[in-house]
């Protein structure tokens, strides 16, 4: 990843001094997450994550039964499969994933960084 200015700024941490902490995704190999905003920060309204997928990494088909999810592609490219339809993911793309909708994400050859927002908080 080239390290876009936006991703670099988000990785610097929050204004309240909380540093970014990256952790492996508990279900998907080659995927790391950094929690930027959680339920306690937002009064239960939303959760915001940076999600980094290594080249070729896949978040296999899954669904969130209680949350709507929004993706903004910050870096890289790949594919989103949403309710059985494939969509190209590239820098600047925005996707809304309705509550309960099956979806999967696969990173391209250069990997991908997403900003993922869940509402209500996951």
Description:
The protein is mostly beta strands. The protein has one domain (27-119): Sandwich (Jelly Rolls). It has helices at residues 5-11, 39-42, and strands at residues 22-24, 31-37, 47-53, 58-62, 68-82, 85-90, 94-97, 103-119. The model has no long low-confidence stretch (mean pLDDT 91). Helices cover 9% and strands 52% of the residues. It is globular.
* Separate helix tally: 2
Run of helices and strands: HEEHEEEEEE
Share of helical residues: under 10%
Low-confidence stretches: none
- Please tell me the total number of domains: 1
User: How would you state the average pLDDT, rounded?
Assistant: 91
**Largest beta-sheet details:** 8 strands, antiparallel
Q: What is the level 1 CATH name?
A: Mainly Beta
Derived from helix and strand composition plus strand pairing, the structural class reads mainly beta
Give the number of DSSP strands: 8
CATH architecture: Sandwich
Mass-distribution shape = globular
Percentage of residues in strands = over 45%
Predict the CATH topology: Jelly Rolls
Q: State the separation between the terminal residues, measured CA to CA.
A: 27 Å
CATH superfamily: Jelly Rolls
- Compute the gyration radius: what is it? 14 Å
């Amino acid at each position: 990843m080239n390290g876009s200015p936006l991703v670099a700024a988000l990785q610097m941490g929050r204004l309240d001094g909380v540093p970014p902490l990256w952790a492996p995704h508990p279900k998907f190999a080659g995927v790391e997450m950094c929690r930027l905003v959680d339920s306690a920060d937002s009064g239960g309204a939303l959760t915001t994550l940076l999600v980094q997928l290594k080249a070729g990494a896949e978040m296999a088909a899954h669904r969130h039964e209680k949350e709507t999810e929004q993706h903004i592609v910050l870096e890289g490219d790949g594919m989103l499969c949403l309710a059985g339809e494939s969509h190209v993911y590239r820098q600047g793309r925005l996707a809304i994933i309705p509550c309960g909708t099956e979806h999967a994400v696969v990173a391209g050859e250069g990997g991908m960084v997403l900003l993922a927002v869940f509402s209500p908080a996951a």
